[in-house]
TrEMBL record:
NCBIfam families: HDIG (TIGR00277), sensory_box (TIGR00229). Residues 302-374 form the PAS domain. Residues 461-583 form the HD domain. Keywords: Membrane, Signal, Transmembrane, Transmembrane helix. This is Putative PAS/PAC sensor protein. Pfam families: HD_5 (PF13487), PAS_4 (PF08448), SBP_bac_3 (PF00497). The keyword Ubl conjugation does not apply. The chain crosses the membrane at residues 259-282. SUPFAM superfamilies: HD-domain/PDEase-like (SSF109604), Periplasmic binding protein-like II (SSF53850), PYP-like sensor domain (PAS domain) (SSF55785). It comes from Thermovirga lienii (strain ATCC BAA-1197 / DSM 17291 / Cas60314).
Length: 635
């Protein structure tokens, strides 16, 4: 049965050479970039930012070469649609855009839109933009959403489309627009340069992802998603470090005890602040008659809209009157969390409903802080209608309109419920990890079968690969490579000469000197191995290591004539192990050298042909640590 499986693998192996393969030119990834600090931007002719950090890490790991294609955001989208770039950076996902482009499943960052106004302008809600000019960036998701929002309300204003976020603020500066729509992150980093102020109108929480030409870059999409998912789960990953570098250290985002808590609280605050902005404007509209809205029907429609938003918040929320401290309004989640219906809660105080006896002093302190205009966030305990005491993440925010405190917002997140979600998330993550490990094991078994398949055609090549793999693994470990890279070096060693299945056996086993033509045929084996492994492995870097194992530091190697650090360190390790093992092994066309002679050969090429650190590590393994090829495992 085992022999039959090996024969099937061998047939598949040869069939691969007759299938179309991706050329090395396809390793060039064209990346659409524009100016959007700190997500993606150019400084001193170098592309930098959160997206650049992530992409360059993935490119280095997976063996891609990046070519940045610069332009405006709108130009980038057009290039993406025409297939002139392979991936677009810093783009917000939307169902409408998904009809035009493919998106990464994993998000890089979450943000939302903000309405900015000229300093001194009396704009406190979306109702106040009636008959004003609002600048929006062309093709920007937040600008498009804001247009739709105003259309739903029947609010008339003039929109001015400009090429970039900077031009939005420039239009306000020049007096061409009274207000402008940008993302929260863009506003944070640029508002200090212009006479603009952020309003309380925030909207459309959304995910920033990567985008790809529709139906054309499935492999690249999968590679980016795979790496993003790994980086999100690793607090020390390039993604997390870049977020700390560009966002946390600049105060854009803060640290929360749990990402899920942060997401829920942000959503709750965004929705409720929008609600209160509309509520204040609604009161204003009553006093001003028909200045803002043309009919009572429109007022009622807007009120119903904001009530719907308020009721959809997933946290338990209660609005208190700042004078009487009685509950003005609760949402539907309040009833689910605490057990009180809206009728039971409204008109009563939070202290009598949900505050335990031993926390009354704490509640009084919270009220005092709110009346002083201070916000509170803390983990505490509260009481349900049933009498059950449970932990909550409590947020209290005083809400103002026209300088007057209109209400005190209290939100409660059930910590136990979050913990249950976190446990389910951990279970799902553990299952995914197990599945990933199973796939990795299957992949490694496939590589092992490939190596054994070679034995059926050329026993020497199989034995050579086995011993080279053993030495390569030891060298990688001695040089301090990560466990993942050590495993890659080991696997690459097992199949580094797999391309020799395309070389006639009479050439491989010829007892005399090879002719120039025969030598050229032999020298095709790194290319053939690369083409084969690119088809059979989900790790492109493995194929790249095999492709480069005959390259030399001074550029005299083959097949591409790479030099210096253009040769991956894994391939430089493999090159030394390959040469040493080949020299100490007997072949039909020459006798074996002694180990001492082989080590002298690589010492002579140190820093010229071979990496000097790899050579020194190899010499030390044999001379001081008693390394022996005889200890190499048989399978």
């Amino acid at each position: 049965m085992k022999k039959r499986c090996l024969w099937i693998c061998l047939l598949c192996l040869f069939a691969c050479f007759f299938l179309p393969v991706r050329s090395s030119a396809e390793e060039l990834i064209r990346v659409g970039v524009y100016e959007y600090y700190p997500l993606i931007f150019t400084e001193d002719d170098k592309v930098k930012g959160l997206y650049a950090d992530v992409l360059e890490h993935i490119a280095k790991k997976e063996g891609y070469t990046l070519q940045y294609v610069k332009g405006t955001f709108d130009e980038g989208l057009k290039r993406l649609e025409r297939g002139e770039i392979d991936v677009m950076t810093a783009i917000v996902f939307s169902p409408e855009r998904e009809r035009l482009y493919d998106f990464s499943t994993e998000a890089v960052f979450t943000d939302w839109g903000v309405l900015y106004k000229r300093k001194g302008l009396n704009v406190d809600s979306i109702l106040d933009v009636e008959d004003l000019t609002v600048a929006v960036e062309k093709s920007d998701i937040y600008g498009e959403y804001f247009k739709k929002l105003l259309g739903d309300f029947g609010i008339r204003c003039r929109f001015m489309e400009v090429p970039s976020g900077e031009e939005v603020f420039e239009a306000i500066l020049r007096g061409q627009a009274a207000c402008g729509v940008v993302s929260r992150i863009f506003g944070y980093f640029n508002e200090h340069k212009y006479p603009v102020v952020a309003t309380n109108v925030i909207f459309h929480p959304s995910e920033w992802r990567f985008a790809f030409p529709k139906g054309r870059q499935n492999v690249l999409k999968q590679v980016i998603d795979f790496n993003l998912k790994q980086m999100k789960n690793d607090p020390n990953s390039v993604l997390q470090a870049s977020i700390r570098k560009w966002l946390e250290l600049n105060g854009v985002i803060g640290s929360y005890p749990d990402w899920l808590v942060a997401g829920i609280i942000i959503l709750a605050m965004a929705l409720v602040l929008s609600l209160m902005g509309g509520y204040g404007a609604f009161k204003k509209s009553i006093s001003q008659g028909k200045e803002l809205l043309s009919s009572k029907k429109e007022i009622l429609r807007e009120k119903a809209f904001f009530e719907g938003l308020f009721d959809s918040i997933p946290d338990a929320v209660a609005l208190q009157d700042p004078t009487t401290m009685r509950i003005q309004r609760v949402n539907s989640s309040f009833a689910k969390v605490f057990g009180y219906s809206r009728e039971e809660a409204e008109g009563r105080t939070l202290r009598e409903l949900v505050v335990p006896e031993d926390r009354m002093h704490e509640a009084e302190h919270h009220i005092k802080s709110a009346l002083e205009g201070k916000s509170i966030e803390r983990v505490t305990v509260r009481r349900k209608k049933s009498g059950e005491i449970f932990h909550v993440l409590f947020n209290q925010v005083p809400l103002f309109s026209d300088g007057k405190m209109e209400a005190i917002l209290n939100s409660y997140t059930d910590v136990e419920a979050l913990a249950e979600i976190a446990r389910k998330y951990k279970t799902a993550r553990d299952l995914a990890k197990e599945e990933l490990e199973r796939v990795e094991k299957l992949w490694e078994d496939t590589i092992g079968i490939l190596a054994q398949t070679v034995e059926m055609r050329d026993p020497y090549t199989y034995d050579h690969q086995r011993r080279v793999s053993f030495l390569s693994e030891a060298l990688a470990r001695k040089l301090g490579l990560s466990e993942e890279r050590i495993r890659l070096v080991k696997l690459a060693g097992l199949v580094h000469d797999i391309g020799k299945v395309a070389v006639p056996a009479e050439i491989l086993n010829k007892p005399g000197r090879l002719s120039d033509v025969e030598m050229e045929i032999v020298r095709t084996h790194p290319q053939k191995g690369y083409e084969l492994l690119r088809k059979l492995t989900h790790r492109p870097v493995l194929a790249e290591i095999v492709y480069a194992h005959h390259e030399r530091l001074d550029g005299s190697g083959y097949p591409r004539g790479l030099s210096g650090k253009d040769i991956p360190i894994e391939a430089r390790i493999l090159a030394v192990a390959d040469v040493v093992e080949a020299m100490v092994s007997h072949r039909p066309f020459r006798s074996a050298l002694t180990l001492e002679e082989a080590l002298e050969e690589i010492k002579a090429g140190k820093g010229i042909l071979y990496d000097h650190k790899v050579v020194e590590a190899c010499v030390e393994l044999f001379e001081r640590e008693s390394f022996s090829f005889e200890d190499a495992p048989l399978s």
